[in-house]
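Backbone Fold Data
Goal — fold tokens
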Amino acid sequence: MKNAVDTPASLASHILDALGGANNIQEFTHCATRLHVTLVDASVVDLRRLESVPGVLGAFPRGGNRYQIIIGGAVASVYERMMSAMKSVAPTALGTSEEPATPMGTAKPAASASSNTASQEPPQSSASHRAFPRTPRAWAGAILDYVSDAFRPLLGVLLGASMIIAFANVAMALGFTPDGDTADGWQALKAIWEVMFVILPIMIATNAARRLNVDPWLGGAIMAALMAPQIAGLSGDISVFGVTIPINDYSGSVFVPLLMSALLGLIYHGLKRVIPDSVQLVFVPFCSLVVVYSLSVLFVGPLGVWLGGELGAGTAWLNTHVPFLFALLIPMLYPFLVPLGLHWPLNALMLMNIQTLGYDFVQGPMGVWNFACFGVTAGVLVLAIRERDSAMRQTSLSALLAGLLGGVSELSLYGIHLQHRRTYRWLLAGCAAGGLSSAVLSWLFPSVLPSGQVIHGVTTTAFAFSSLLTIPVFNRAWVYALSIAIAFAVAMMLTVLFDYRMPQSARKTADSADFVDPLWHAESPNVIFAPIAGTVVGLDAVGDPVFASKALGEGVGIMPDDSAGVEAVHAPINGTIKTVAKTGHAFGIKTDDGVEVLVHIGLDTVDMNGEGFALQIAKGDHVAAGDVLLRVDFATIIRSGHSPVVIVTVVNTMAMTSVMPLLATADSQTADAQRSESRVAAAGEPIIDVER
């Protein structure tokens, strides 16, 4: 069970320990809600321990020794504490650059703590020499990670700038600026957003170069050089030493800095292999600048502009010719893309649409998904208030406020929805209702661009998170507002009417296939019952050194019968589900008087990724002894090469007066006999006696 973790510093310490310590961290950054970590050796990570840390909403591995850890709104504070802890424990783990770490920054190992050029050279690590992906799936994952890491650190500044546009639109709509968008004040505010958009390619190139272990300022400098003629007011083609160079508008471009930085990575690391160390400081940047700039201005830049234009035109064609499908597809996909971190390329598409088309039409349908997500959270809040569930009330309220005011969906998604999968039914229903409403209203009341072009869809010229505060940035704002209101209301009402938790299993009767033995009662209030039938053995006999050491508390193991197939695993005690492994192989229950019980199905079954486990409960559910928690295919566990033993321990044994495993039969009452013998128990028979 979880120990108390009250501060970001303590949370950071627990996460570092579960990741294998500061020296095991190779690269480190974060986005709005998640920590993104690249490790030296992912095999030393204790995923179960990491997921059990209070404040960690979830954690999952990615390819290339990468992990994502979902924290929520406190991610920046945890990141800063982890940075401080890593510097104090292992100074060489973070480099010696004088550049301060930004809230959305990245930390990497330095090449040498004593180098005088640390602030100029990029961090060098084993990441510099990563092998190229070998399979199409690995290539796809690497590309998605590359795009995500290039955009993630920019999220805060882009959204902050877009909020300025939102407030300016509200002020103009309310008549606070009588001259409209021609007022000097409006133009000054608008310049904040526009300058962000103009220099966006330079910021993307800087982050992309850093991701490839290249001097980030080199990537930014080359992108700035590509944009220099445009900034100087030149257009068309210019002749340089007899070579005709096309002048393109790269402001707001996405593909060009990504492609240019990828080329820079190849050239840069190739040069470092052939140029002597003594002159690398001068000649690696010099040669990189000349070669990459020349190739980019002639080939990469035009290619990136063409790719961006074609992709924008393709999505615009979909929005124009099949608007109903587009309005439904985007919100219905997002609930599955966001948990996997695959939504970042769509953010790039939004920015690219603004650059190539002058407007974006993806953010409207995306807002439908966001507000359906917030609607489910509001429904959970209503039920939590009704049932006086203080823990869920606090979780849902903070997630709802973060969503409605900040447009952050991850707190709802990881804090509630993925913990209670039943919510996805109501979430998708809200997405469908809002998407359909948006499609119908957009067809009847299309957006009209300043150029006079008619678009059947909600459009915007800004990049903004979908929140109540950003509604004014959309064209046909009332259509957008009504669509997200419908998505919110439908998702909320369905959650309130049909609950967010799986129905509790009724007590089994004699004529039911799920019959529960009537032995789920005992004179002692803290008796722990057998969750399944089988042979009860001591922890020394389960075959796992961690459990045998009693590090996770005193308890017993239960070996199912050899003929066991799909069996129900029952709650061994009355209480609240406090932890549930995503794979279904382990869960924790806490009784009202503080006894913390861990039930672990099989050894190393986390490797099965949920195969053979069918959960019927979720975190936060209240259960009674005998309720069915999940169904397990023990035959699948055995075929996978794992032990099927079910382990039950009292995690906070040290806080109890006595925890006695009941291993012996009724006529063997001595403590020595109980610890040395084993017995066959039916589900519902007492297996552990706890004295507070």
About this structure: The CA atoms of residues 9 and 84 lie 9 Å apart.
